[in-house]
Amino acid sequence: xxxxxxxxxxxxxxxxxxxxxxxxxxxxxILGSFDEAQLPADATMSLEIDILPIADDNVETVRLAxxxxxxxxxxxxxxxxxxxxxxxxxxETSALPDGWRSRMIKVQNANTAAPSGEPQFTxxxxxxxxxxxxxxxxxxxxxxxxxxxxxESGLVAPVVIAERLPHVPDSYKPAVERALxxxxxxx
Length: 187
Hints:
Distance between the termini: 29 Å
Low-confidence stretches: none
Number of domains: 1
Number of strands: 5
């Protein structure tokens, strides 16, 4: 995945749902912090971008996520044409620590503009350590490999990840304990 593909996904998702802003929560949100040339291969392997629509409640978020998925999701004509898909997700998709919204990275440039050039669409990408918290709470092998690659490259701080892990919703507490055990070997 490349930064220009992320920007294309932001623009497309905003157009599909008729909103000016979306949040990128999956692994490709790392492209908000780093250019693909700065990242290890394990950090850019995914060919799907997880987009969280911004809405007043999760019911509306789910509705908008379904629209994105229907138009640009896996096996869609969009994926066939562009070589990647856009997955619409909701607030239940990621375990995010307190304060995550205040740390998001803004992605807005000429590549996120409407065809007319205005208005520009905005993608808000997760902070790199908040992304790692979410990945470690999911704790799949691919998530561990993703975080390990960023740690090995020195692009994320293990201490910051460990500090944020206990601040996810209580429903993720068992995942937090497992993740804290895993991350402790990195400092």
